[in-house]
Design a protein that fits this description.
The chain contains 6 helices and 2 strands; from the N terminus they run H-H-H-E-E-H-H-H. By secondary structure, it is mainly alpha-helical. The chain has a two-stranded antiparallel sheet with strand order 1-2. Helix 1 packs across helix 6. About 20% of the residues are buried.
């Protein structure tokens, strides 16, 4: 297979990664929009389970630590206290969402400064060297894992009032028919979801 001359593997990777992270943040955003009851952000199934507020606090702490000054400091900052991220100290829905947005802002601020050439550079997390590409891949597994937990909790709490964030139940055939009725095209799977959010 001949790769088109305009294709740049690293550039395409960065673009795709940014879209995927934006998509998963959007899933969290849309879950929060459905949770009008403040108590929902602090609900725990049992003492060993994490509330949405705790999951957000953990993501916030991870993002600030991993993505601040990535080329000059270790990704596990001395001022990060990971164990306390699993102890809720937020009091309001607004505090939870403020942390959510602050963590993502730090992450995207760094991600948007990276160039294709940066992907092979080495950064450290707990003294272990990663290429920047490996560090991004690590978080492409980590962040959606926790976003999925947030969505699952939201869905349990909303029950019959839950508004699907993907293909609604029993609508797969209809969705596929619409897709296959169109001409083949090269696009990113998140484009339709992100574009719909902007309308």
């Amino acid at each position: 297979m001949t790769i088109p001359p305009f294709f740049n593997m690293n550039t395409d990777y960065l673009s795709g990664a940014k879209k995927q992270f934006a998509y998963y943040k959007q899933l969290g955003d849309k879950t929060f929009e459905q949770l009008t009851n403040t108590e929902a952000f602090f609900w725990q199934y049992n003492d060993e389970s994490n509330s949405i507020a705790i999951i957000v606090k953990h993501l916030w702490g991870n993002m600030l630590s991993r993505w601040t000054d990535i080329f000059t400091t270790d990704g596990e900052k001395e001022n990060r206290f990971r164990d306390t991220e699993f102890e809720n100290d937020a009091q309001t829905k607004e505090q939870v969402i403020e942390r959510w947005n602050a963590g993502w802002q730090c992450f995207f601020d760094t991600l948007n400064t990276l160039t294709p050439e940066d992907l092979d550079r080495i950064i450290y997390i707990r003294n272990e060297g990663h290429t920047v590409l490996d560090a991004i891949n690590r978080q492409l597994a980590h962040y959606p894992y926790h976003v999925g937990q947030i969505v699952f909790i939201g869905k349990m709490l909303q029950n019959q009032q839950w508004q699907s964030l993907s293909i609604p139940r029993n609508k797969s055939n209809e969705y596929n028919q619409e897709k296959f009725a169109k001409s083949k095209t090269q696009t990113h799977f998140t484009d339709e979801f992100l574009n719909n959010n902007e309308k």
